[in-house]
Amino acid sequence: MSSTPGSLRGPSVEATIEQIRYWVPTISDVAHTVEAREGESWLLSLEPHLATACPVAVALRQTGRFDISLAGETYEDRALETLDQLVLLLERVVDGGVIQRKWVSMATGAAQGLETHVHLGPGLVLRNGPAPDGDAECRDRHFLPYRRRL
Could you state, in order of their start, the residue ranges of all structural domains in the chain? Predict the structure, then answer.
């Protein structure tokens, strides 16, 4: 995931929205979904029925950049290499491919940062705060898939 401006490859914003609209009904039995438009942004919110799954909300702008909230952590003004990766990102969240990693100081227990990992190809890491220093340890929170597999 990149946070620097650049030209987007792949489908247009409207084509990506249509891809996501086509996909959303496949999860309607396991999540409450809300779609809206607000100014220049298209909004999508997925609230899983299962409390231990990861809720997600996306605000996609016409520029192809987006804000995303995963399990209450918001990451603003993001971009992917191609917009079709946004569908893959949402699929990974629904499949339980999210780990929230909290870094804490071993000496004081103070929080030193929070990363959200979404398994997207070679990996996608969203980070709030600076990288932890040498005396930090991580505590991972794993999320379940929206749909139980029997």
Answer: 13-142
